[in-house]
């Protein structure tokens, strides 16, 4: 029963943090617009008053790439570079906000107004950043070890043919089952830092491991549930966005609103994960 | 007795069919090959005992013969093939060669002493891919030269068109093969002589239609396939088995052996289809076979009948990937090894392309060395038509809600996007294309101007051109000029003088020229006429507001420019705000053309080449103009970009 109760309490905590999540959404949107708006201007400049845009009404006609000539290369380069920059700044931004959110959830439903949220985010930023980098490295290493190595061996053994690649399902399963552990460590550590106000990253990681060890079964089950919901939603949202082809201005605006709503839900689900782990930390060992 | 008679009546024709495929030969059959070969899987060699014959169909005695020894291209890094940098051996075991251990004529004369290598294309003394044999007695007109040859072919690795990788064998270009003896007049040739080119990185086909009777002994656990029809299969009882195939009226004979092959059989009308693939490739076997059936159906209806009762095609596994995308008339290879996702029709595209070579090279046996466009370009054109006809509603390569691409556009993009598109004319021999432009020129540019030709003369006329080309040249050796003559005759017959006396003006630009095609809308204005006065034809004229009644009058000007050097006739569609449309025709010869319209209507859109007939136009974005540009598509793209970035950022931040 603890398990369901914690998921529910986590959901309630995330939902009541809607103002903070809206701030995160708005900031992320502004940041992405900084890259997207100039890209759209380049596109408009390339097509000017041409009717060639009609060839993109039901999906991008890749044949246009040739007609765009060098402009396509510039546009592609700008989009790629812009995307990379966005990933980097986005990483910093969401790490920043994670500091505020964990403080909000560690406060056990204590109110956290916007100013306090920003203040908590700023206070936790550097230790959270170091921890996020470390945990990201660990996750990359985990991925390389569990998936990269078997893929390399399989490719070498089968001379690139990857015959018998059904065997790859086993490392994939191990990788997926291991992921909740690393996220739990990261979240327990951050919750500990937010709750104690300490900025000592390695001590936080130790506390995170310890907290997880003491409540492993309940923590793992809850995290697995949260992750499955997150992954399913993530895939569904991308699928919907990819396959939607609105063709008129009004429809495109509605499509824009729908995608932003999906992103808000995505942020809400991620906050739910943070809140659930914060609730787990309150359980007796 | 009656039972025996019944068995004889039923089975003898079947056995005979196995021996002789066509009662009436499809070609002149100037050459033929009987080969008994053994595959040595340890040493990666094929040893062969061959009787090859050639008929002198010229009016003069011939005192020497030229033979292709293609595998020698892999015997040295100084061969014309290997020195291009396209291939280097995988260790000492990787070198390939064909060694002639004995050669004699039908009178028993040892010819090995008269053999020497020649390099007719580039004079490379280190190239040993063309062998000249000086004959002790000339072959008289109508006589047959018979050569008995014992040869040993060491297969190269890695596989490039031919070779081995571990236990995978793709055995192509593996036996000594006659060049083509051309008589004066054939392919506009001035005098008789052999046409036998070296093995080049970009071309390999020009041969007589021949009869092949080939038996191959392989280890029993191997699965084999070839371009021939199975005649018999005998278990030798020593861990090997002998397979005998016969093929008639094809220009080359290749075969393959691999223990891992899975065999799928199907049938299209009277054609037995054999598909050899890997375990992984079995998943897309239906797609692959349907692709080939689509090719059969399309070309059969629009060019001419597929004449052979059999075809074999192969999707090589990853270890044999170097054999992918090759054509040997009745055996050809696909690509992808079953690893290409099904929404991307690349494997189907390759299968259709390589199948198409049964027509453009196999039946219509042009010279790929000297006129690669007539082989690869024409075949690419048809491949694109087939792929875009059967898949994706015109977007044959990929058709997803967020991205689409037609096969024809993929080729066109390759041509118009190339910075070297004006580096050479399109009629060069394969080995003379500069700056790596062979592929773009021979495949994509040629296919693009063939689509343009179709746009100009209509699809129906284009189909009739190829039907006539097939009727005139099937199982012969047409040249580019023969093709052009066919175009001219059919276009004249169907369109009279609409395009002038002939279509040479078109070929002079696209095939023998280097200019590019680009038309653009240079400006559109619709100015209100507020009144004018002046002198016209000696009389004073005046126009006042009161003459305009209730409507506003406009003087609309549409300016069109030809910015490229290529001159092609174009149509220009002009639409007005009252819904009227005008189609203007312009011969495209001047540098610019203005169209003027006076009336109560404004121009709302202008489209040069509204039906996209001129694929050669290197920029279609500047072909149109509208007074109401729509940015919905770019808005949608940006919305998706924004959302994608947001989601990716949220994913990569723990």
List keywords for this structure.
heterodimer, A: 285 residues, mainly alpha, 9 helices, B: 654 residues, alpha+beta, Immunoglobulin-like, seven-stranded mixed sheet, four-stranded antiparallel sheet, 30% strand, globular, disordered N terminus
Describe what this molecule looks like in 3D.
The complex is a heterodimer of chains A (285) and B (654). The longest helix of chain A is centred in the middle third of the chain and has 44 residues, at 114-157. Chain A has one domain. In chain A, 82% of the residues lie in helices and 1% in strands. The model of chain A has no long low-confidence stretch (mean pLDDT 88). Chain A has nine helices and one strand; from the N terminus they run H-H-E-H-H-H-H-H-H-H. Chain B has 654 residues and is of the alpha+beta class. Chain B is 25% helix and 30% strand. The model of chain B is unreliable at 1-18 (pLDDT under 50). At the A-B interface, helix 2, strand 1, helix 3, helix 4 and helix 5 of A face strand 22, strand 23, helix 6, strand 32 and helix 11 of B. Strand 1 of chain A pairs parallel with strand 23 (403-405) of chain B.
Topology:
The complex is a heterodimer of chains A (285) and B (654).
Chain A: H1 2-15, H2 18-47, E1 60-61, H3 64-68, H4 70-106, H5 114-157, H6 169-196, H7 201-214, H8 216-243, H9 249-282
Helix pairs in contact in A: 1-8, 1-9, 2-4, 2-9, 4-5, 4-6, 4-9, 5-6, 6-7, 6-8, 6-9, 8-9
Chain B: H1 2-19, E1 31-40, E2 45-55, E3 62-68, E4 97-105, E5 115-117, E6 130-139, E7 144-154, E8 163-165, E9 168-171, E10 177-178, E11 180-182, E12 193-195, E13 210-219, E14 223-226, E15 229-235, E16 240-250, E17 255-258, E18 262-268, E19 271-277, H2 285-302, E20 310-314, E21 331-333, H3 346-356, H4 358-363, H5 372-390, E22 398-400, E23 403-405, H6 407-416, H7 438-457, H8 459-473, H9 480-495, H10 504-510, E24 519-528, E25 532-536, E26 539-543, E27 554-562, E28 570-576, E29 581-586, E30 592-599, E31 603-608, E32 624-626, H11 632-652
Parallel strand pairs in B: 1-13, 19-20, 20-21
Antiparallel strand pairs in B: 1-2, 2-7, 3-6, 3-10, 4-7, 5-6, 8-9, 9-17, 11-12, 13-16, 14-17, 15-16, 18-19, 22-23, 24-27, 25-26, 27-30, 28-29, 28-31, 31-32
Helix pairs in contact in B: 2-3, 2-5, 3-5, 5-7, 6-7, 7-8, 8-9
